[in-house]
Amino acid sequence: MNNPSNLQMISPAYARDLLNTYNTNNRSVRQQKVREYRRAIDLNQWVDNPHNLIMIGSDNVLIDGQHRLLAIAGGTKTVPMRIVWEVDPVVQGVTDINIKRTIGDMRGFENWKFKSIHIATAKVLLLIHDNHTPYDKHFTYTNQEIADYMTSHAEEFQHINASISGGSNQLQIVQKAMCLFGIQAIREHGWDDCVEVFMQGLINGNDLYPQDPRLIARKWFETNRKDVRKWTQHYSTLVKAFNYWLKGDTLTRIHKWNPEGENAADTFPKILGRNNV
Q: What is the pTM of this model?
């Protein structure tokens, strides 16, 4: 008979055996979560947590641990985990009620403003850094990787706070795109008059002539403010407006970037550098 609760070394073969034997009545698999766990394991960032239990019910059905076991089963490393046997099956209905620990809960981020926006931005910046498309939905990073990136680039994130905290309602919904754009622009041009003047004009809308790219961008956001989920469109609009403004060109309308186009990755707007103006 199995011990009520013990720490065991779960090899890929053992994980597959547990899944084949006990995973007969579980929820649908979230592949993104499996990839996240597997990456943490591969990078040796998986930490044993007494509350992270593999639960097997008294009816011999896996209650909790499906995604962790799938991550181990698809990899090459053996991972220590606690297995609890003979659990009352009624527990399965409440195992996911507890709030999971997020990056924002980690030590060192208690006083960060706009944590959720910074976290989302850091994920995109990591994708860009690793030569993935910025909107890649299939590649994932661990919480530790994201937290490390935010810590090492804390000055940039804090610098852009003022830019994403002001403005009208239509700008409030594009804060992720503004944060990403601001950091990318700072990296290209530094936080000089160029970036600051563009951002402040975009935010407050004061003294803008009719064909000023910043005004056209503001109008675009007002027209498309219900499209809150497509941050890629918001970001591409900001980049297009900035590039026109940087060259001193006027603008009458901004065309949407087509994510379904044949060369979508190649046509995704890029911020002009100092040498391209």
A: 0.65
pLDDT of residue 217: 92
246 vs 49, more confident = 246
SS3 7: strand
Q: State whether the Cα torsion 245-114-221-215 is positive or negative.
A: negative
- The dihedral sign for the CA sequence 28, 31, 37, 42: positive
The whole-number average pLDDT for the span 3-16 is: 82
Opening angle at CA 208, ends 206 and 214, nearest 5: 100
- Supply angle C-alpha 249, 168, 110, rounded to 5: 110
What are the sequence ranges of the domains in the chain? Answer: 5-93, 103-276
Vertex 265 angle, CA 262 and 29, to 5°:
95
Sequence-distant (≥ 6) Cβ neighbours of residue 88 within 8 angstroms: 57, 58
Helical segments of the chain, H only: 12-22, 31-42, 66-73, 115-129, 143-152, 154-159, 161-165, 169-172, 175-189, 193-204, 213-223, 231-247, 264-267
5 three-state secondary structure: strand
If one looks up domain 5-93 in CATH, what number appears?
A: 3.90.1530
Which residue has 């809150």 as its token pair?
A: 228
